[in-house]
Write a structure and sequence with these properties.
The chain has 360 residues and is mainly α. The chain has two domains: 236 residues, Alpha/alpha barrel (Glycosyltransferase), CATH 1.50.10.10; 97 residues, no CATH class. The chain is built from 13 helices and eight strands. Strands 1-2-5-6 form a four-stranded antiparallel beta sheet. Strands 3-4 form a two-stranded antiparallel sheet. β7 and β8 form a beta hairpin. α2 packs parallel to α8, α3 crosses α8 and α11 packs antiparallel against α12. The chain is globular and about 55 Å long.
């Protein structure tokens, strides 16, 4: 993925490596407008976890992987620079997204208000295969997908220039989970630089991200900020727990733990949306199901802030869930029934990490 980075440092969330016309895949390079590029790729980014992964790799592989990790650092540095240079239009330290897919939480209700304020053109053409490959009751609705497609078109019409896309896009939301992950990754990049004697990472960027997280703190906890209407997004969801991985205050972590114990109670935690919320749907993708990647982030965040008992309990329930229902993409938080894709690799990878590196 790092080798597919755009010239400005932006790392895409999809790289197309083998273009076979007989393979029906959507959204493909034509959807993104990158079919003539080498390599074809998406025009939007993804949560910047790569520096954290590289740090884990060096920690566990030691000198045997130093050269491989060292080779990653220039692209990681460029990506982090890009995110705070091009995606912080308010200069408040919080990272703004041009598309819900950049969050990894595609159809979460946190995006509803920002998406439904405007209408894409009726003649907009797009093709979906996800609803034929999976259960449509677990997938985003067509009216959401039309807006996703239009936001992709906006980046293409901006000639893939970030400043122009940021200026024109009808959707521009500061993402609390994305910002927290970047703060965690910036810490990891600074640590990699020290360990490998390489000038990467920035204390100035880290300070800015801490400031950004404070900007996203409200009386109800961490919330996204919609730049187009200049207000915090009231919708609660598991994304508000992700800042546990970041350098935040004890008072914030205590409040987050209270919300985890009260708002997110479920037989199989953590539901993406509080079960008492009107937007909760236990089977529909990011509108309610439990995801192992969210649990893993919260587990590692709980560890960071010394909540070891809670981390062990959540890790145990996560492993029990996968043992019960398999390596599924996501799970019904009430019944544990698996949904989405079977044999899902990030579920398997994170379960492996929890088994090999359990909370103390």
């Amino acid at each position: 993925m790092l080798h597919a980075a755009w010239p400005d440092g932006n790392v895409p969330h999809i790289r197309f490596s083998a273009l076979d016309p007989s393979v029906e895949y959507a959204p493909g390079p034509t959807f993104w407008g990158t079919q003539g590029m080498s390599p074809p790729r998406s025009s939007i980014t993804q949560p910047p976890v790569a520096a954290v992964a590289a740090s884990f790799l060096l920690e566990r592989g030691g000198s045997t992987v130093e050269d491989e990790v060292l080779a990653l650092l220039p692209a990681l540095e460029a990506w982090h620079q890009f995110l705070l240079k091009e995606r912080d239009p308010l200069d408040d330290g919080a990272v703004a997204l041009l598309h819900p897919w950049e969050s990894g939480m595609d159809n979460a209700p946190r995006w509803d208000a920002a998406l439904m304020r405007w209408e894409p053109p009726e003649e907009l053409a797009f093709k979906r295969v996800d609803t034929s490959l999976g259960n449509p009751e677990e997938r985003p609705h067509d009216h959401e997908y039309r807006r996703y497609a239009w936001l992709v078109e906006q980046v293409r019409r901006a000639d893939f220039r970030q400043a122009r896309a940021v200026e024109r896009s009808p959707f521009l939301v500061e993402d609390v989970a994305f910002t927290a992950i970047l703060a965690w990754a910036e810490e990891a990049l600074l640590d990699l630089g020290r360990r490998l004697d390489c000038r990467v990472g920035s204390n100035e960027r880290l300070s800015a991200l801490k400031r950004g997280l404070e900007h996203l703190w409200t009386e109800n906890g961490f919330r996204d900020f919609d730049i187009r209407v200049k207000q915090h997004v009231s919708q609660a969801g598991a994304w508000e727990l992700v800042p546990l991985v970041a350098p935040i205050s004890q008072s914030h972590t205590a409040r987050m733990l209270e919300r985890l114990d009260s708002e997110y109670r479920a037989r199989w935690p953590i539901p993406t949306v509080p079960p008492c919320d009107s937007s909760f749907e236990p089977r529909r993708y990011w509108r309610g199901p439990t995801w192992v990647n969210v649990n893993w982030l919260v587990i590692r965040g709980l560890q960071r802030h010394g909540f070891h008992r809670q981390a062990r309990l959540l890790a145990g329930r996560t492993l029990d869930l996968v043992e019960t229902s398999g390596f599924r993409e996501h799970f019904n938080p009430h019944t544990g029934q698996g949904g989405g894709a079977p044999d899902f690799t990030w579920t398997a990878a994170l379960v492996l990490d929890l088994v090999m590196n359990p909370p103390p």
